[in-house]
Amino acid sequence: MKNGTDAEMEKKQISGALKAKIVLEAHPDIRISMDGVGWALDNVYIERFWRTLKYEYVYLWKRDRIRELRIGLGNFIEDYNHRREHSALGKQPPWTCYSLNRWCEEA
Known about the structure:
The protein contains four helices and no strands. The chain has a domain at 36-99. By secondary structure, the protein is mainly alpha-helical.
């Protein structure tokens, strides 16, 4: 029999796996790095992204259907990567820096 802590941990793991599945389905060109090289630094960026996604989309907008959630998440991620200015990237969206194959400097 599982105790409450085990059940909560399992719920968090399933939730994390579902998030990853939704993102990977929406963006099949994303590759998951499992080699451990630079993992701690990579984790900082993705944790910040998940925080932003939760506080600016998930917690603010209730969706009644999975399809609505998927579309909304896709739109949020598209905006976050292609239109939203990031102060750490010199007020450029990440895609601008990535597509130019360079790191945008802070302004």
